[in-house]
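queue> pop job 88
queue> type: inverse folding (structure -> sequence)
queue> payload:
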């Protein structure tokens, strides 16, 4: 898992509430268990005009030239609601997003993001709206907007000198800063696990496989 300390990137706006996981990655693409190959299917039904994904929809927000290369997604309330599919954060990350900012997230989606190092930041509705207005003003002048996210300081800095602080659990924060997923977390206790296995095997010889 990639580490995250400070990230500065282009912001894309998807100003819609209640975007569910089937809109993020439709069910017909959930045919693989590995994390690769889902980025091209992100927001498929909005992003393309055809079922094969060959005709780009020019009216979809993320297809606009001003948002190309975006690594930060600014979106609406209750993002990631619906099913618990892990493919939703996988597709967002593979598309190129390192962080998502929204007033609120569905709980399962929120936790699935942290399992792969995709930083999800809840901000008050007023703050999100203020940033959206600023990004849209820049876009109207054909200017891309960049934000700087400092995870250690738990702050978001805008190029217009505005800044916002955000909350994150110490557990999630440490894991993302260290680039540590759940397996890596478990392996930090490898010595204790090995000692337990030896002791357990010694005390329960009848459980040994010969």
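queue> result:
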């Amino acid at each position: 898992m990639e580490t995250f300390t400070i990230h500065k990137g282009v912001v894309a706006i998807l100003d819609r509430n209640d975007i569910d996981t089937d809109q993020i990655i439709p069910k017909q693409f959930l045919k693989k268990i590995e994390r690769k190959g889902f980025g091209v299917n992100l927001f498929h039904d909005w992003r393309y005009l055809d079922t094969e994904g060959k005709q780009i929809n020019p009216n979809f927000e993320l297809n606009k030239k001003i948002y190309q290369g975006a690594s930060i997604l600014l979106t609406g309330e209750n993002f990631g609601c619906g099913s618990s599919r892990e493919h939703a954060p996988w597709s967002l990350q593979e598309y190129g997003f390192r962080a998502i900012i929204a007033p609120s997230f569905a709980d399962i989606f929120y936790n699935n993001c942290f399992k792969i190092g995709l930083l999800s930041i809840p901000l008050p509705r007023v703050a999100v709206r203020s940033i959206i207005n600023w990004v849209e003003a820049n876009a109207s002048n054909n200017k891309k907007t960049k934000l700087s996210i400092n995870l250690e300081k738990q702050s978001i800095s805008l190029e217009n000198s505005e800044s916002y602080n955000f909350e994150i659990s110490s557990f999630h924060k440490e894991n993302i800063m260290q680039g540590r997923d759940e397996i890596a977390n478990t392996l930090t206790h490898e010595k204790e696990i090995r000692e337990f296995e030896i002791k357990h095997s010694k005390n329960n010889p009848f459980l040994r496989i010969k």
